[in-house]
Amino acid sequence: MASGETLGPRPWIRAPETAAVFDALEVEGGPDCARFVGGCVRNALVGRPIDDIDIATTLTPDRVTKALKAARIAAIPTGIEHGTVTAVSGHKPHEITTLRTDVTTDGRRATVAFTTDWAEDAARRDFTLNTLYASRDGTIFDPTGQGVADARAGRIVFVGDPEQRLREDHLRNLRFFRFQAWFGKGEPDAAAVAACAALKAGVEGLAAERISKELLKLLAADDPRTAVRLMAGAGVLETILKTPANLARFDALVEIETDLLFECEPALRLAALLPDDPLAARRLAERLRLSNADRDRLQAVLAPTPGLKSWMSPREIRREVYRAGKPVFRDRAKLAWAAAPRTATTMQWRGLIALAEGWTVPVFPLTGDDVMKAGTPKGPMVGRVLREVEDWWIDHDFLDDPMSAVEKLKAVVQGLAY
User: Fold this and answer.
1) 113 to each of 35, 103, 296, how far by Cα in Å?
2) 62 inside domain
3) Got the DSSP string for 187-243?
4) 87 and 123, same structural domain?
5) 189-217 pLDDT, tens per residue?
6) What is the residue range of 375's domain?
7) Helix, strand or coil for residue 133?
8) Are 75 and 69 spatial neighbours (Cβ–Cβ below 8 Å)?
9) Which residues does 384 contact at the CB level (< 8 Å), separation at least 6?
10) Cβ neighbours of residue 31 under 8 Å, at least 6 residues apart?
11) pLDDT per position as a tens digit, 245-259
């Protein structure tokens, strides 16, 4: 089962906190009772950063817990029914999961049985590049015989029959496109794409939080354009969004972000795929149970008016920044840029965004108390007067003269007919 390859003595493998976890497990279960698994092995193999350290073990969860406690390492039962215990060593979490095999599956969750067979554990995983294990000396184990080659070639291939894997857990449909965005190279696996298309309806039965988490992870890839188009072609994207995706605007936005080194923002990329309809955006956000911040962001950026143009004057830009706020203006400017014909120059759009970012938004110099002191009785009229004076102030390009605002207030109050 050893692949004949090794990761070598990586710093994350030799870290004292990680060594302490392996030492504890080996005291209980003997040599080779634990191996690194999944993402940390895959990422190290292809030269990607290591985010989390996952460990697979032949020890049952109760023995894992016993071993950790004996070594005075905190043991947290984060997923005990599925065999997962999180060890906190040196303030760093290490997720430890007992080898397992599926007993029953329903497309959303699985009932598992524990095993000591590494090949059985690999056989229940999603993609071949995620079936890789590594011992603490860095030796790579590849039970399917394909994982190392597929990882290096950027092939996202299901373990075994793709339709069977999807019927076990329909989240794998979204994971296929997410891994295609992050790791895929060249032509996608035809059998995998066909299976995802055939079983796309199964995605609708997933918990909303699982769908949104996978979708936003996909959109966070450096360049997810090919994967998103593949997902749209398979009908999976429309199954989630409930509307045809605006792929042209999405592609243009990712190109702008990539070429000009703008920060990748998954929520804005999601907005680019949607129609300019705040109510529809809100319904999607609620259906997918997005955060309140993402919900409000989608609604704000997808309002159809005011339309932004690359040739706006500085005065017009300041007015819209004041009314919308810098974050919303920046989002709307990027989407307008992505939707605009390529006749407008990059310099124009960049200048528009730079002017907005560099402007210090002024504070309106009057309050409701000032309006009442000027003679307006307490009530709804106070707000109306305040808004009229503020509109005047904005039209005068945020006049930096508080006394002028006071004089305007007096004039408005004197002109009222109660």
Assistant:
1) 19, 6, 43
2) yes
3) SPPHHHHHHHHHTGGGGGGS-HHHHHHHHHHHHTSS--HHHHHHHHHTTHHHHHHSS
4) yes
5) 999 999 999 999 999 999 999 999 999 99
6) 368-414
7) strand
8) yes
9) none
10) none
11) 999 999 999 999 988
Residue of 283, 270, 284 lying closest to 331 (CA atoms): 270
Number of domains in the chain: 3
Say if strands 53-57 and 92-98 run parallel, antiparallel, or are unpaired: parallel
Beta bridge partners of 101: 113
Q: From CA 276, how far away is CA 274, in angstroms rounded? A: 7
Domain boundary (153, 177, 212) is at 153
d(CA 361, CA 167): 54
Tell me the pLDDT tens digit for each residue of 156-194.
999 999 999 999 999 999 999 999 999 999 999 999 999
Whether 323 maps to a domain, the answer reads yes
- Tell me the C-alpha distance between 111 and 105, whole Å: 6
Same domain for 337 and 408, yes or no, is no
**pLDDT at residue number 346:** 84
- Owner of token pair 């095993």: 115
pTM passes above 0.85: yes
Cβ atoms < 10 Å from Cβ of 91:
7
With contact defined as beta carbons under 8 Å apart, do 345 and 329 qualify? no
Tally the residues of the chain: 418
Tokens standing for residue 117: 């067979």
CATH value at residue 70? 3.30.460.10
> How large is the average pLDDT for residues 75-94?
92
CA triplet 375, 380, 386: central angle to 5 degrees?
60
CB-CB contact of 43 with 49 (8 Å): yes
Q: What is the 3-state secondary structure (H, E, C) of 243-305?
A: CCCCHHHHHHHHHHHHHHCCCCCHHHHHHHHCCCCHHHHHHHHHHCCCCHHHHHHHHHHCCCC
